[in-house]
Every structure is written in C-alpha cells, then in structure tokens.
Amino acid sequence: MEFVFVAVTFFTMLLAITSGSNLYFTHNALVEATRRGARFAAMQPASSPKPGVLRTGTDVGPSLDAIRNFAIYGNAAGTGSSVLGLQPSNVHVEYKDFGVGTGSVSVYIDGFNFTVVIPFIGRQIAMPPYRTTIRGESAGTLPGTCP
Questions:
Q1: pLDDT at site 144
Q2: How far is it, in rounded angstroms, from Cα 112 to Cα 124?
Q3: Tens of pLDDT along 33-43?
C-alpha cells in the first residue's frame, strides 16, 4: 500500500518536472521566434512595399505576411511546420522611423497559451508577451547605395 502512495507521488513529480522543462522549451522557442522575425524584418528594404505593408508616416515596411511567416515557419513563404502551433495573429510587427541607421523594428508575440500536462492539474497558462527590437542598421540597402 505504501508503494502506491509513493509511486503516485513520484510519477506526479516526474511529470511535473517534464512539464516544467517543456515550459522552459516553449519560452526559449518563443524568444527565438521573435528574434528571428525581428532580424528578418530589419534586413528588409524599407522602401519596397509589398502586399500587406505597414505604413507609419513616410516610412514603408516590407511584407508583414513574410515577416510573420519567417518568425513562425523560418521562411518567408510560410511552408513547413510552425513553431509551437503559432498563428499569424499571434505575431505583431512595429516599425518606428525605420531607415538606414535609424529607427527600429519590433516583433512581438502575444496571446499564446501553454497547456500544462500534469495529472489533476490540467490547465492553460497565458504566456507573457515576447518582444525583440532591432535598430534599422542597413535596412536592406546595399553598401554602395547608403547615404
């Protein structure tokens, strides 16, 4: 009888440790997705609008769909498997005074829920927003054409 109580407690703790590790993996994957999307967005030419462009003042950003796809799938076409089942509606892009050597671009993910898989404690945890901001740098401009 004692083995039953000890075994249930032991395996519940083992599943809790596994679930905690999965939560940490999820955190790292979301951080990496925002970093990858922001780096891709910072390397896009600010002056070549495409379908789904974002306009702030006189600045024009590249295709927001391509940036979201790059953050989620790792490629601009949006093919392959998504990171953690993210949806494009979870990924947001903000340009601020973007250009060569000026301004910044931010990619953030919000509205993602992590499902806890522990016996008797099955629930969802709302993950906090993850944001990566990168400055304009070359903004996709070739060295010979920079001002």
A1: 56
A2: 10
A3: 999 999 998 88
Distance, in Å, from the CA atom of 72 to the CA atom of 76, rounded to the nearest integer, reads 9
Give the integer Cα–Cα distance in Å for 91 and 111: 9
What are 84-117's pLDDT values in tens digits? 889 989 999 988 877 777 778 899 999 999 988 7
- pTM, whole model, 2 decimals? 0.77
End-to-end CA distance of the chain: 79
Helix pair angle (2-42, 64-73), 10° resolution = 150
| Distance in angstroms (rounded) separating the CA atoms of residues 30 and 74 | 13
SS (H, E, C) 21-76: HHHHHHHHHHHHHHHHHHHHHHCCCCCCCCCCCCEECCEECCCHHHHHHHHHHCCC
Can you tell me the distance from the alpha carbon of 134 to that of 103, in angstroms, rounded to the nearest whole number?
Answer: 9
For position 47, what pLDDT does the model report?
53
Q: Do residues 42 and 136 touch, judged by C-beta distance below 8 A? A: yes
Tell me, what DSSP letter sits at residue 74? S
